[in-house]
Amino acid sequence: MFRGRIKFIIAIGVIALAIAYLVYGGVRDTMVYYLTVEELKERVPGVYEQKVRVSGNVVAGSIKKSLDGNLEFKIADGGDSIDVIYKGIVPDIFKDGVEAVVEGNYTSENVFKADLLLAKCPTKYESTDSLKRAYN
Amino acid sequence: MIGTGSISIFLAFAVSIYAIIASVVGARYRKRDLVRSGEHGALAVCFLLIIATVSLLHSLLNLDFSLKYVAMNTSTDLLPIYRITSLWAGQAGSLLLWCLILSIYTAVVVIQNKGQSRQLMPYVIATLSAVSAFFIFLIAFVESPFEMLPFVPVEGRGLNPILQNEYMAIHPLTLYLGYVGVTVPFAFGMGALLSGKLDDEWIRQSRKWALLAWTFLSLGLLLGARWAYLELGWGGYWAWDPVENAAFMPWLAGTAFVHSVMIQEQRGMLKKWNMVLIIITFFLAIFGTFITRSGIISSVHSFAQSDIGPYFLGFIGFILLFSFVIFILRLDDLKSENKFDSILSRESAFIFNNLLFLGAAFTVFLGTIFPIISELIKGEKILVGPPYFNKVNVPIGLVLIFLMGVGPLISWRKASKENLVKNFSLPIALFVLTLIVLVLLGIRDLFALISFGFCAFVTTTVIFEYYRGISVRIRRGDNLLIALFNLISRNSRRYGGYIVHLGVVLIVIGITASSVFVKQREAVLAKGESMSIGDYNIRFDELSQYTTQAKQVTAAGISIFKGEKKIGSMVPQKNIYNYEGNREINQETEVAILSSFTDDLYIILTDFEGSKASFRVIINPMVSWIWAGGIVLLMGATIIMWPATRQKQKEISLSYAVGSKDQTAEV
Amino acid sequence: MVLEILIVLAIAIVVSVFISLPFFRKNRFDQPYLEEETDPIQGKLIQRLNALNNEKESLYNALKDIEFDYELGKLSKSDFEGLNLSYKSKAISILKEIDEIDNEINLKVKEFNLEEDNINESKEISEEEDVIEREILQFRKSGNTIDPQIECLNCGKECNPNDVFCSKCGNKLSF
Q1: What ipTM, to 2 d.p.?
Q2: Is the minimum CB–CB distance between C162 and chain B shorter than 8 Å?
Q3: Within this chain, do residues B269 and B346 fall inside the same structural domain, yes or no?
Q4: What does the pLDDT read at residue C26?
Q5: Staple partner for B5: which of B52, B360, B565, B651, CB 3.0–4.6 Å?
Q6: Containing H/E element for A31?
């Protein structure tokens, strides 16, 4: 009986260790820094060729689409802005002024090559301003 | 009706607090009238919340823009059906729905247990009312659905177009039914701890509710995946998005729970473990609700962020503290009736099942809150994406599939060599056979091979079980169909469970195939041009543009060929909604999907210019198996939950008066 | 506006009345708070009875299960017979104890009035359970002189099923 208990505890230990190992490896291999445009620029040149995620607002008028799917635009927060090039699925929400999140590498030519593009509604709180306009 | 609705909520808050007090005091001082009054209170809360909900629905249907909630979520061009579903489109309305569902569940618990479980019930009701009170507090004082605007807009912001489809109508509802449903087994656990009645009673009641909640969570997850697949248009169905994870974590813990309760019921073991597990499951459900609503972790589901975050954190902290304190206080009373005999046993398989499910839940939890932790510790936000979740959960999932086959066949206590050989030879043989066949077919991906192999293993065990069960019945004189019917109806938990496992197998096959063998191509086509992908030839015929009442449509007509034969046409679209309103999003991409048994052809119209259009074409193999598996899973779950046609033994309530006089009654 | 006030008032009144109702139906609440009440000894007896009945029910289920498993071919003959015997003997000792308690209670019950509407259901025994109970009664009556014993899994000594620890090696007896 006692032996059974030990076998059992060993098995549980093995499972726990295996999971811990998977988690450790998983995190180490896939972790990505989430930066603002400002923070990204601050980390140059160390951040070149490091996989990062950057968020910023799409600069009005900067969106250039070509039919073969290449997309170029700028994102900014506060004063800084960066150029982004991206080829892939573009969320419906994506347009001037939205908050965009890109994931990829900041190349040494100071262009962000993104392989992932997400966009979010700009409103942080449900503001009633848009309703006021309708009223007036 | 606004006043009525609003005041009903305040009344509901007051009454739920009363219900807590009455139940607890009545239980402590053994006053039946107080306890009964508390139960009536719980019923009253349900009544009041129904009034509040009806009131809000009334305002929504009539587009009463003086209400902020109505103005923010509807518009004059919104179809009536979506005015109803907008009840749960926004923060305040969905919180009201949460409260309503919880109060209905509470009422059902009260009614089902009239005259029974008198020792347990008051504390169960108190717990349910306490959780209710918290959520009602939120809609009464923090985020009221009946908040008025200082002016009355002529037009509302409208409902996000993504939410205007049938899936959105059901997906949140089923998820809530699941999330909220987890509260009930938790309340029974708390009731057991608080009352000291730590025998099997709480487990028996919890099992049914946990199963119900689990079923709804499963349904909600599947619908969410299907909706993402159809509407979000990136070709996939699961992104490990924080809000998706928020529902997945309680599902994982819940699956562990519905299995481990079987061990407590059959062998009186794992009592402490089950208590801890239900607390964890409930925690994950509330935590999931918290993540979804507070916006603390950025997600593709951007619910409007609001002030309720801190309240949730406080509530979560309180629950964890309170439940673990009373758990520890009662630790000595939660003794096992039996011991473990061997590592090769059903008990053992179930325990491994639990460990793995919880392990998976833990890894998902870690991955989801990673950015928050890293920000707290290192000061910078670090996140882990889908690759992390897949890397960690796929191996766990594979072992779980294997266990799914082992569990039902291995014997209790200690599996003898005889038992192992008898039961597992055939399934193992089929496992090996499947591997050989697949390798011969050219499949080399290791994960796919193991996954399909294990699926074959499990399927064999299920069929084997059914075959044996039917044979026994046939020997007893039934014909085939009657045998099957009797088998399932007399052992609904076992044979229904097998069907659920089959459903899971189908889903796993679908997920494996669509993950490993997916193909994707992009092309720019001029009118009349074709492209090929896999076995398909895709010809772009024409671009048509027209306007409907709600939007300007650009549709690409496409013909699909396999070889020379035309097998169908597809029309992916890119539309623009006319009305600005709640349209930070007024663009809408409608994907076109051609589904078959073997794969889905998935076409996205990405851009167009003049007579040219660009497309992204994806072949997702066997995705329809996922949905089919979901249906099978639901059928199985229904069978398990179906009320037993033969009453095995009504509970003996030997409540006769053996003695006297309650002193207070004389007054 | 006035109508709404009246409606709200009505709702509030209905709710308050409903919540206070239990306090006014005094005659229903002359009884003690719980089933196993007042007389602590009696209470303990009834508690024990409930526990025994629950255990008996789960034993019956276990017996039914192993019989089915054996028929299915999942359980070998020796495994089945071993479990069958041990479950049955445990069930027998439970039935014995139930009988004893029943007798004690019946003596006391004759002295008091029974409140009819509080006796819920007496057992509704299903077909299969009937069979098992009859079988077990048979087992007892057959004058089977083998006093039902269970085997200590550690040392093999046959011990009294009511014992918690093995009288030879001291190991905890599982059922």
Answers
A1: 0.86
A2: no
A3: yes
A4: 64
A5: B52
A6: strand A31-36
The chain A residue lying nearest C171, using CA atoms, is A1
Shared-domain flag, residues B487 and B579:
no
Look at chain B and report how many structural domains it folds into: 4
Q: Are residues B450 and B477 in the same domain?
A: yes
d(CA B10, CA B146): 11
Least confidently predicted of A56-60, A84-88, B572-576, C38-42: C38-42
Contacts of C171 in chain A (CB under 8 A): 1
Q: Which of B49, B70, B107, B85 is nearest to B162 (CA)?
A: B85
pLDDT tens for each residue of B379-416:
888 889 899 999 999 999 999 999 999 988 887 777 77
- Note the pTM of the prediction, 2 decimals: 0.85
- B402 and B435 in a common domain: no
- The reported pLDDT for the residue numbered B518 is 92
Q: Are residues B504 and B631 both part of a single domain?
A: yes
Give A74→chain B minimum CA distance, Å.
19
Residue B40 sits at the chain C interface (C-beta within 8 Å): yes
For chain C, list residues with pLDDT below 50. Answer: 113-126, 143-147, 175
**Structural domain range at position B39:** 1-156
What residues in B contact C38, CB-CB < 8 Å? 658-660
Helix (H, G, I), strand (E, B) or coil at C124: coil
pLDDT band at B220 (very low <50, low <70, confident <90, very high): very high
Residue of B nearest to C43 (CA): B658
Residue C147 pLDDT = 47
- Which residues on chain C are in Cβ contact (under 8 Å) with B423? 74
Three-class SS of B185-234 = HHHHHHHHHHHCCCCCHHHHHHHHHHHHHHHHHHHHHHHHHHHHHHHHCC
The answer to whether A64 contacts chain B (CB < 8 Å) is no
Whether residue B124 sits in one domain with residue B71: yes
Same domain assignment for residues B175 and B314: yes
Tell whether B424 and B378 lie within a shared domain.
no
What are the CA-CA distances from residue C59 to residues B263, B348, C53, C56 (Å)?
14, 21, 10, 5
DSSP tag of A122: S
For the beta sheet containing B612-621, the strands, ordered from the edge strand earlier in sequence to the opposite edge, are: B519-526, B612-621, B599-609, B592-595
Cα–Cα distance for residue pair B453/B459, rounded to 1 Å:
10
- What's at B221, amino acid-wise? L
